[in-house]
Amino acid sequence: MENVEVFDSPGKGRGLRATKELLQETCFSQNPLLLQFLSEKICHSCFRRQEKLQRCGQCKFAHYCDRTCQIAGWKEHKVECGAIKAFGNIGDNIGKTPNENIRLGSIVSDTQLTTIDDLEDHISECQDDLKDLKVDIHNFLDYWPRYSKQHRVDDISHIFGVINCNGFTVSDQRGLNAVGVGLFPNLCLVNHDCWPNCTVVLNHGNQSAVNTMYHSQMRIELRALGKIEVGEEVTVSYVDFLNVTEDRQKQLKMQYFFDCTCEHCKGHIKDDLKMGGKVVDGIKVPDELVNEVTEYSREMLQKMEKARLDGNYHEVIKICRECIEKQEPVLADTHIYLLRMWSTASEVLAYLQFIDEAADYTRKMVDGYSKIYHPHNASLGMATMRAGVAHWQAGKIEVGHGMICKAYSILQITHGPTHPITKDLEAMRMQTEMELRMFKQNEMIYQSMREAALKNQPMTMNNEPLAESVKNLFRRPKK
């Protein structure tokens, strides 16, 4: 933490303040991680998500890509391995695995971090969750090894409270799905702002290389989004800025037990964009019609989410198309309900291989996001990457390359140049640049190559031969 100092923040507890000028660089990173996994479909060492994984022969819970990943993750797993196995042999726990709070709580207890004692647990304000807390404490006592130092119930309660209020959700290696929960004591001192000057990202490092000299440690990073002045408080956002002020305030109060007083909350900044109506030829759509379509959208979003949870993706698309048809003539392109419909429609359409339609929705989504989010927001970067890939797959190489380059510039700041997502984007940027160059030289040859590759058919060239590196430019879409 050489670039920050701890200070007392009135009304918020403790905070971090920059001690030297920072410009688009990491403030600090923390390692090791106190981390537990929610999913069994990811490697518990490198975080890669895949269907075929090898599970630990002892606890049957931890999963790994291969022996290399298992060896790399054994140091962190060996203590809990025996505890998970023992827990599953006790009374009502037969065949069960303790939840992530209990497993993470045991790691916190074992590390004996003094920083944890200084963090708020808000146990007194969690009256509605006391029943679940008591169950977790009971299961923790079953899970905690008898030969280890025993803890008082108050200490265990404090740890669970700290996890509930300060735990970070962590994503898979691609940054697309939540796979676990982590506690990072130094980062717990960073206060919230709805328009922050930093972001938090998990860098998974590289633990899968056969040669251990190429391994790099997994770490959590606090990254500056721009220039931070000396003495300025370092802040991150605990909630998504895409939500309107009222919803952000409710979420912060319910989960973190404080009232946000940042400038964007006090001024309700951009709320008018998030719930606004469309302007046609300088005339705004009447508020009554905007409110009517907004209420309709709220109902359709609930139906869509139910169909999505049921895995009925064709019904999801039907709902999205029907709703978007009524939304687009009335709602602004920054209205959050329209943005959510575009986002879901593009994701599901891409999955169902309706690539052209998916690409159109991703472009609209990114245009709306760009008017709401900070220009260096990670969600904007990820959405732009999705849009770039969708246009690339649809054969719209010029737009696709431009969006991939834009996403790369954003994620260079939010994720850093060594993050796996940024490295993937760099490869995409080089690939699309090569294809764009080919497109500009001879569009007809480019399109015929693409069509032949998508049909998985061999193709003969009558003109100049292609370089070796160009042969695998196009991939057949997975059904």
UniProtKB/TrEMBL annotation:
Enzyme Commission (EC) number: 2.1.1.354
Keywords: Metal-binding, Methyltransferase, S-adenosyl-L-methionine, Transferase, Zinc, Zinc-finger
Biological process according to GO: cardiac muscle myosin thick filament assembly; heart contraction; methylation; regulation of cardiac muscle fiber development; sarcomere organization; sarcomerogenesis; skeletal muscle fiber development; skeletal muscle myosin thick filament assembly
Catalytic activity annotation: L-lysyl(4)-[histone H3] + 3 S-adenosyl-L-methionine = N(6),N(6),N(6)-trimethyl-L-lysyl(4)-[histone H3] + 3 S-adenosyl-L-homocysteine + 3 H(+)
A GO cellular component annotation in the UniProt record: M band
GO molecular function: histone H3K4 trimethyltransferase activity; myosin binding; zinc ion binding
InterPro entries for this protein: H3K4_H4K5_MeTrfase, SET_dom, SET_dom_sf, TPR-like_helical_dom_sf, Znf_MYND
Superkingdom as given in the UniProt entry: Eukaryota
Record bears the keyword S-adenosyl-L-methionine: yes
Annotated ranges, domain SET: 2-239
Record flagged with keyword Translocase: no
Span of domain MYND-type: 43-81
Protein name in UniProt: [histone H3]-lysine(4) N-trimethyltransferase
UniProt organism field: Esox lucius
Record lineage: Eukaryota, Metazoa, Chordata, Craniata, Vertebrata
